[in-house]
Amino acid sequence: MIEQSAPPYRYRISGLIVASDVALPMRTLLDPMGTPPADVTMSHAAVPDRLDQPTREGPNWTADDRRLLLDLPGIGRFLAEDGRRLALSPAPGVALEDITVFATGTGLAAILYQRGAMLLHASAVVHDGRAFLFCGPSGAGKSTLTAALTRAGCGFLSDDVCAIEPAAEGPPLVQADGRVLRLYRDSIGHVGLADAMGPPVRQQVPKFHVSPPGGTAATGAGVPVAAIYALMEASPATPPGITPLAPVAAAQALLRLSYRRRLALAYGGSGGLAPRIASLLHHAGVCVLHQDRDFAALDGTIAMLFRHWDTLR
Amino acid sequence: MAAFPAGLVWLASYPKSGNTWMRILLANLLAGRAEPADINRLSEEESLMGRWRFGDDMLVDADLLDSRELARMRPLHAGFVASRQTTPFFCKTHDRFAGEDGAPSLGAAARGAVYLLRDPRDVAISLAYHLGATVDEALARMTDPAHHFGGARQLPYLLGDWGGHVAGWTGQGLTPTHVVRYEDLRRDTAAVLRGVLRFLGGQATEVEVSRAIAHSSLEALQGQEAAKGFRERQPGQARFFRAGQVGEWQRVLTPAQLETIEEHFGAVMIRFGYAPAGATPG
Predict the structure, then answer these.
(1) B59, B64, B228 ranked by CB distance to A260: nearest
(2) Domain identity same for A89 and A123
(3) Does B238 contact A at CB distance below 8 Å?
(4) Predicted complex: ipTM over 0.90
(5) What H or E segment, with its residue span, contains residue A125?
(6) Does A136 share its domain with A110?
(7) Predicted TM-score of the model (pTM)
(8) Cα–Cα distance between A175 and A279 in angstroms, integer?
């Protein structure tokens, strides 16, 4: 019998140790000797065309209690299974490196949800030992604001996904998503991180990996949540500012701001999600942060946030 | 309260052709309330043109896809939504009917489409204002068959040139399409709206139609925008709901600009009753 060799790469992602036979760009490699056993394996492997009896489905995905099959036509297929195994199968002619971003995004989110996690579509920074989260869909300005905050002295925690886990006591903890910032070229220039620019996120996509000042959080220790901001564009009717949400509106906002909301509902909808949201709201407020989308307004937004954080001590 | 059959219906147009007005008219008809529908609650986040809805349904963010990959997925998305829609869903789109590969950009599963078009000479003025650009800059976009549009909330999409947009939607036979001219909508809103109702198999009383029109009047919309703003307004734009004039081009456009428009779009203009400047009105 031939003994199967262990996947060569190990990473810490959202609190999990991931053993992978696929190299992930711009992530800190763990020393296999010094790390605990892997929670999840990620591998280049065959993925079926469909699930036999899915209980949920979308335009390009099917799911049952233990599996998610995601099909991105012309890109590849992904199977997340039992909260433990993630398989990637690139479409013909597509390089494996060009599809890892979907595996570490939606694929790992499915794994985390299968394990009972709560995920927010948020970036996060650390200030005075507490985590501040910035939620919003793609394009809301999460990464740019986070980059600017790290330039202003905050620690970097997450770029796109925040895994929230209960603490033994006190506020729930945020786990780093283990990735660096991903920014468009104009954002990189405006926040002054041109020297930290790495390779593009995908070959044909003009978004780039950027190392945050101060590096990434690699210890695996969660950071207590202090406040959560939903990013919205300012308008004449809603000028730049911070507006706290009442509890019901805050709970609705958090559900809407879940990372891959339909997966949150698929795996946590039957009673798992509501108590977690309630627990989070017990310890951390949710505010709407209206900001101008103009880069010139970033300094003002940061000053406003620091003032707000002073009131939350 | 007015009633419409369930299903996905495209409200399709080149930008600045009355699409938002039609959407507000239908929203007011559907709501059937004594007070006007809130222009900031038109569910644009649910729009199949938006990044939020695409990511929510497809489990992948559009900013990680190139234009070919996105073009492959959007018909899948629209087809899935159309097949599951249990309520009336009037969805705005500015997508050209056919994509770069010639296949329908949004598939062909919608139950129908209302296509709005407006005199391209007035579109040019309105588009220039919308973009904060000159008329010549607006015309450069309107005459570019490969022009792509999009934004922070909106998916990137192939808009193409004005003439190709009109010809594509009005000349296809895959999605049943009712064509509405903006000028007719301005001239006799009630008659046009009744025509749209008939096409869609909807039902509404005369009182409901009149009330929806009153709630969607320019004065009412400008009043709402002045009081509460409008989420779809462009950054830097003083207001979204302008006068929406018919024939403004006669005072504003230069002979060279008129020549550019007629040179590119003359045939389509004549087909839809937009007589060239030198021609006898017909």
Answers:
(1) B59
(2) no
(3) no
(4) yes
(5) strand A118-127
(6) no
(7) 0.92
(8) 16
